[in-house]
Amino acid sequence: MIHLKVPIAKTYFDERDFELIREPLKSGWVVQGAYVKRLEEAVARFTESPFAVAVTSGTAALHLAMVALGIGPGDEVIVPAFTWVSTANAVEYVGATPVFCDIDPETFNIDLEQIESKITEHTRALVPVHLFGLSCDMSRIMAIAEKHDLMVVEDAACGLGARFGGKHVGNFGDLGCFSFHPRKAITTGEGGMLVTSDEKRYELLQALRNHGASLSDFARHDSKRAFLLSEYNHLGYNYRMTDIQGALGVAQMEKVDWLNKKRRERATVYDELLKNADFLKIPSCPPEMLHGYQSYVCRFTPEPVSTAVLPDLNRRRNDLMVALEEKGISTRQGTHAVTLLGYYQNKYGIRNEDFPNAWMADKLTMALPLYPQITDEEQQYVIRTIITEYKGIR
Ligand SMILES: Cc1ncc(COP(=O)(O)O)c(C=O)c1O
Question: Which residues surround ligand 1 with Cβ inside 6 Å?
Answer without folding.
Answer: 57-59, 83-84, 86-87, 129, 155, 157-158, 179, 181, 192
